[in-house]
Amino acid sequence: MSRSVKGPLLAASVCALAIVPLAVVTYSFGPAESLDRHLLFDLRREVGPAHTFAATFVNLGDLGALLVMLAAACALGLGFGRRREALAAIAVVAGANVTTQVLKVVLEHARTKAFEHEISMPWSTSFPSGHTTAAASIAVALLLVVPTGYRLLAAGVGAALTGAVGLSVVILGWHYPSDVLGALLVVATWGLCAVAYLRRRHDRDVAVRGRRPERRRHLAVSTD
What we know:
Layout: H1 3-28, H2 30-43, H3 49-57, H4 63-79, H5 83-106, E1 115-116, E2 119-120, H6 130-145, H7 151-171, H8 177-211
Helix pairs in contact: 1-2, 1-8, 3-7, 4-5, 4-6, 5-6, 5-8, 6-7, 6-8
C-alpha cells in the first residue's frame, strides 16, 4: 500500500477511534461536561439576531436540503468528468449520515442535569449532531467532485456551510458543542476513507497504463 493511501487511512482511523472517547468524556468527565454545558448556555439564544440567524441557516441541515445539495454536487462532478469522485461523494454523504443516526442510538445518554438555569437541555440522543453531519458531508462531497483548481473555493463554501449549521444548532439549544465535534469526526472518517479509495484507484490506473505494451511501429520501406 502506497504512502498516499496509508496517510488518509491512518487519519481516518484516528478520527473514528476518537468518537466514542469524546462521548464518554463529555458525558461523565466533570470538567469536560461542565465546559460543554457552559458553552451551550453562553451561546444559546431564544431571541435576537443570533437566534434569527440560527433559525434560518439550520434548515440547510435538513434532509430535503441535503438531497438537493448532494444532487447539485454530483451534477457538478459529472460536468467536470469526475464520475468516480461523484460516486465517492454519494458514499460519504450516505455513510456519514447513516453512521450518525446509528451512533445516536448506540451512544444515547441522558445528561446528568436535565435542567439548569431553567433551560431545557438537549435530548439524550443529541450526540452526534445530525444537522452538522449533513452540512459537513456536503462540504466534503464538494471538495471531492471539483478539480484541484477549484478546491480553495469549494473549501471556503463548505467551511461556511458547516460553520453556519454547526453554530446554529448550538444557538438554538438543540446540541452541545461536543455533539457538533462528534459529527465532524464522523464526516472526517468517511471523507478520509473516500480520499484513500480514490488515491488507490488512481495508483492502479497509473500502474495499468504503465504495463500496457507499446504498439509496434511498422517499418516503412521506400521503393524509390
